[in-house]
């Protein structure tokens, strides 16, 4: 039996979220500037508790997002979030998290401003693709993570394929803002780079911070 055949893709249950977030944190480690900024201190107990509760709140509030887990036996080895996005994403961090929540998540004002600027640039390519569909929408891979101890078993590819298959059935594009490390995986699933390096207009005052290096990939529907 191949490794890929031992991987199952099912929906995340609410009780899975602490483990799912830990998988995500270990997957990205400290080498993903956007994740590090969006989920502060995600490698600490406090950061993980805050992070999984934010993910769970997102799941419970969004009927358009599907939260998936890749399991091997009874072990969660990977997670993904696919969203059918028919309207442009929130353009500001405040719209995403809520004004009152921002200082709770990013207690440091400079951290909060940094993430605010990152988000504003992050959603530009996504917004254009969604708008160009004229309301039909696109499938957006908003999060993909595979535990480092279970990589190269086919979990990542299976999680990506779940969404591209859904997009194909509806004749829609699928998109992702991917890390350089994950680019080969996405390309193997039919996504093509449309922006080799996404632009982040962070302005002045953040010269000591690492700007994310992300590639914007798009897959045309295969019908």
Automatic annotation (TrEMBL):
| Keyword terms | Acyltransferase, Transferase
Residues annotated as domain N-acetyltransferase? 83-212
Q: Can you say what this protein is called?
A: Acyl-CoA N-acyltransferase
Q: Which organism is it from?
A: Lophiotrema nucula
Instruction: Return any one Pfam family short name.
Output: Acetyltransf_1
An example molecular function term from Gene Ontology annotations:
acyltransferase activity, transferring groups other than amino-acyl groups
């Amino acid at each position: 039996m191949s490794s890929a055949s031992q991987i199952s893709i099912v929906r995340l249950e609410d009780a899975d979220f602490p483990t799912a977030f830990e998988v995500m944190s270990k997957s990205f480690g400290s080498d993903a500037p956007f994740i590090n900024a969006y989920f502060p201190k995600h490698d600490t107990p406090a950061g993980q508790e805050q992070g999984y509760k934010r993910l769970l709140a997102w799941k419970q509030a969004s009927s358009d997002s599907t939260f998936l887990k890749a399991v091997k036996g009874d072990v969660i080895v990977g997670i993904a979030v696919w969203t059918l996005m028919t309207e442009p994403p929130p353009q500001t961090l405040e719209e995403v998290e809520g004004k009152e929540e921002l200082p709770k998540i990013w207690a440091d004002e400079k951290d909060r401003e940094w993430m605010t600027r990152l988000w504003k640039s992050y959603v530009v390519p996504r917004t254009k693709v969604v708008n160009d569909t004229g309301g039909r929408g696109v499938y957006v891979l908003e999060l993909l993570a595979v535990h480092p101890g279970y990589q190269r078993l086919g979990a990542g590819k299976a999680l990506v394929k779940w969404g591209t298959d859904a997009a194909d059935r509806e004749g829609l594009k699928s998109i992702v803002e991917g890390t350089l490390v994950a680019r080969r995986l996405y390309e193997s699933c039919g996504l093509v780079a449309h922006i080799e390096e996404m632009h982040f207009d962070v302005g002045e005052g953040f010269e000591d911070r690492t700007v994310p290096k992300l590639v914007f990939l798009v897959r045309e529907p295969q019908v």
